[in-house]
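STRUCTURE:
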């Protein structure tokens, strides 16, 4: 049976479908690639199945391996290696290392100062010729093809017991998006079925093949002109021991362990032990010692049985080498039971071993390394190097210079690390194409070209919503966290958010894309960073990094509420034309430095975060100080990261969603169900790439609604309007009041300063205090609030348990969050809330 895009088909059906492969490829590849995240999620779920001894999937695949007549230890090792290969963290690291991004197909600027967009896109139809001696190789190659977004056709070995097809089918079954199955075809057939091979390859864009030179050449003959051949051809590996290590028993035991593990079936298994000497007697002596160690180490595991043909090659090599002993060239040491063979040879030429624990021991003084090994450079892979520290550095440089791909220590030759290149290259890059689109000034604010086409939104996980007060529940595993920031604490107790460095850099990249869309031009703007810093708060640091990503000219001043005149003078002295910071601090800067900044009129752009400017404040900045652009730098939070961005057409409080980072749900205020179009609800975010901590369906604490109409900027990313904080609505006496209504009323009567509500108690009565900036509050402010806010007036008419007051106060005496400097909208000091 064969696996064809989610279906199991017989020979006859597969034969018919092969005639339609070109049309199939055209249809599948015309759509957007699934993206690595869909693959990572499916791999994570399948990996858990394979690690579970009671899993039916594991039992079925184990049975398929045993049908392949593999030794039980290799069956177990294959599953262990598979589970490691499917590990989400390992695959994330692989994708990031090889393609630079978890969404590498996005056409994005590599330099935000130039309208040039680049992406890694699928190579197309990728055929994999799976080897017959490595059961998991074909499936893992197809997995890499999926990560690169290709349509994958796997030619499985005729000896395959359907393991490859069933493993990839199990992977597709774990995919909740349903997009992986259509990119997987597994055909189980012998290499003698040439008509099938030709039809597989005819529409192919690339082919990956394993094996010896003859096998690679046979595949090359099948490929059409221009088809990329990704050859994982024959490689040789060896150990290299210096004089101060070859007498060490532990070193020899480590080399022997590398020989016995997999019985030299891996390309990284040592076939030769080279000695840094020209002394033939020393070579024979070391061979004797190594044979004794190999016998001891080899006795711990059962060697696999070679085939008749393989035994013939081993016997022939041993006989010829034995005959050369009479010439003084060689020495043969053989296990009487046939388990291993050590062949000492005084000639340095690199020579392949017939494997199955058959090892050459040869001299190769370091001064001859280049002459002996460079001609063989295309075959060199791993070197197990045993030397002292200075020699290790020198010999490693020499060995890579003559063609070796990997240098490690004895005992670790068959080991690897996550993201390690294979045979000197990254597989995902060989399975992809790097493309670029060069555009003009019309796209100077566009960071991602794909946003003009549509937005690929990922599904939210099927887990309950986590409220803002339950944030710690998302921090069960912080093993990958590297960077920690406190939230500002303006809407409650500060929370410590955890990020990996990859999270941080990814967020800063998206923040930079958002600032570009908002209108910050890194080519010309001179930016002063006036966000708050310190106390584990990330505002200043984050925007420092964001501006660095943009390549913008930055003056990292930091918020200086007590030195606003000094800041104003610095703006003028350094010809700063763009400010980023918090509205309350920025507006205070212009008011206090009005004489300096009013005369300068050189600040053209303001990008703010954390709070909002009132309409009256915007008018003051534009009319009195000449500011042309006032936009949100980013909608985000310390716990959630960058969530949305504004474009040049975004009204106040309207943002585009960062679909590359988050999924947004807007749910009912009372029930965890989606609201209807245009209705107000709670904002719930899921960060699909967050590594430092989970952020699954997290209620950020804001209210908002979807905007259905398309944005004039042309971007297709979803838009939403912020409608205040969930904490903006508070209860006092018998009524619920809204902080935003107080702000709106104040704007209506011309007030431009900060406003804060303080809830307290006085005897048996509750007290509502409206703080306004001293010098800006009209004397009849209380009456104006009563006149403009009907619910407030009605409450006082119906009850006498609440008193309302206006308190003029210097703005620096308002309650601000200690870390971020944010103005706290509502301060509740009532006993029941302390």
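SEQUENCE:
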């Amino acid at each position: 049976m064969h696996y064809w895009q989610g279906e199991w088909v017989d020979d006859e059906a597969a034969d018919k479908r092969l005639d339609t492969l070109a049309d199939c490829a055209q249809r599948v590849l015309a759509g957007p690639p699934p993206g690595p995240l869909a693959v990572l999620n499916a791999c994570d779920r399948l990996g858990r199945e394979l690690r579970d001894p009671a899993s039916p999937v594991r039992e079925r695949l184990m049975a398929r391996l045993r049908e392949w007549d593999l030794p039980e230890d290799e069956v177990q090792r294959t599953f262990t290696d598979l589970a490691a290969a499917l590990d989400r963290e390992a695959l994330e690291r692989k994708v990031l290392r090889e393609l630079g991004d978890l969404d590498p197909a996005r056409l994005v600027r590599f330099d935000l100062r130039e309208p040039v967009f680049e992406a890694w896109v699928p190579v197309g139809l990728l055929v994999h010729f799976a080897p017959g001696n490595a059961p998991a190789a074909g499936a893992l190659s197809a997995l890499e093809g999926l990560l690169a977004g290709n349509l994958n056709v796997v030619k499985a070995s005729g000896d395959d017991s359907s393991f490859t097809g069933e493993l990839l089918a199990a992977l597709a079954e774990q995919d909740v998006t349903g997009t992986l199955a259509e990119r997987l075809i597994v055909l189980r057939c012998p290499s003698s079925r040439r008509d099938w091979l030709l039809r597989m390859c005819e529409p192919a864009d690339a082919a990956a093949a394993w094996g010896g030179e003859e096998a690679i050449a046979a595949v090359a003959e099948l490929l059409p002109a221009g088809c990329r051949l990704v050859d994982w051809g024959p490689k040789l590996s060896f150990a290299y021991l210096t004089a101060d290590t070859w007498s060490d028993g532990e070193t020899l035991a480590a080399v022997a362990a590398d020989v016995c593990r997999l019985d030299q079936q891996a390309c990284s298994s040592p076939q030769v032990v080279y000695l840094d000497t020209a002394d033939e007697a020393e070579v024979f002596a070391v061979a004797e010692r190594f044979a004794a160690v190999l016998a001891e180490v080899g006795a711990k595991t059962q060697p696999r049985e070679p085939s008749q043909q393989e035994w013939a090659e081993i016997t022939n090599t041993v006989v010829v080498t034995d005959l050369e002993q009479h010439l003084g060239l060689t020495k043969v040491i053989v296990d009487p039971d046939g388990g291993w063979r050590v062949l000492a040879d005084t000639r340095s030429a690199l020579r392949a071993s017939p494997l199955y624990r058959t090892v050459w021991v040869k001299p190769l003084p370091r001064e001859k390394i280049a002459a002996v090994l460079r001609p063989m450079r295309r075959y060199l892979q791993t070197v197990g190097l045993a030397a002292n520290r200075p020699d290790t550095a020198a010999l490693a440089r020499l060995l890579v210079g003559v063609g070796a791909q990997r240098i490690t220590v004895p005992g670790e030759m068959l080991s690897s690390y996550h993201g390690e290149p294979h045979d000197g290259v990254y597989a995902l890059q060989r399975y992809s194409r790097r493309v670029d689109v060069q555009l003009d000034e019309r796209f100077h604010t566009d960071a991602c070209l794909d946003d003009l086409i549509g937005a690929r939104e990922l599904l939210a996980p099927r887990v309950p919503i986590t409220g803002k007060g339950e944030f710690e529940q998302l921090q069960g595993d912080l093993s990958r966290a590297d960077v920690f920031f406190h939230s500002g604490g303006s809407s409650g107790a500060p929370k410590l958010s955890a990020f990996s460095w990859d999270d941080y850099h990814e967020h800063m990249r998206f923040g930079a894309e958002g600032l570009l869309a908002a209108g910050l031009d890194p080519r010309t703007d001179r930016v002063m960073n006036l966000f708050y810093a310190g106390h584990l708060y990330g505002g200043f640091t984050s925007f420092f990094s964001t501006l660095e990503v943009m390549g913008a000219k930055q003056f990292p001043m930091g918020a200086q509420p007590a030195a606003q005149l000094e800041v104003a003078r610095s703006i003028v002295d350094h010809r700063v034309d763009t400010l980023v910071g918090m509205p309350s601090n920025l507006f205070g800067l212009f008011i206090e430095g009005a004489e300096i900044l009013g005369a300068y009129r050189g600040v053209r752009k303001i990008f703010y975060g954390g709070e909002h400017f009132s309409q009256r404040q915007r008018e003051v900045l534009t009319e009195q100080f000449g500011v042309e652009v006032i936009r949100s730098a980013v909608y985000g939070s310390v716990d959630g990261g960058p969530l949305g961005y504004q474009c040049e057409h975004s009204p106040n409080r309207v943002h585009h969603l960062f679909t590359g980072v988050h999924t947004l749900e807007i749910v009912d205020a009372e029930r965890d169900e989606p609201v209807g179009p245009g209705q107000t609800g709670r904002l719930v975010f899921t960060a699909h790439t967050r590594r430092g901590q989970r952020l699954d369906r997290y209620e950020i604490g804001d209210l908002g609604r979807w905007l259905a109409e398309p944005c004039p900027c042309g971007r297709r990313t979803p838009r939403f309007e912020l409608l205040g904080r969930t904490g903006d609505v508070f209860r006092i006496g018998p009524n619920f009041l809204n902080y935003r209504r107080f702000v709106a009323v104040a704007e209506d009567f011309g007030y431009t300063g900060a406003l804060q509500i303080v809830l307290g108690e006085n005897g048996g009565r509750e007290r509502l205090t409206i703080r306004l900036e001293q010098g800006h509050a009209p004397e009849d402010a209380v009456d104006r609030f009563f006149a403009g806010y009907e619910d407030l007036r009605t409450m006082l008419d119906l009850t006498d348990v609440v008193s309302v007051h206006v308190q003029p106060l210097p703005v620096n005496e308002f309650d601000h969050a200690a870390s971020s400097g944010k103005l706290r909208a509502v301060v509740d000091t009532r006993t029941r809330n302390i």
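REMARK: The radius of gyration is 34 Å.
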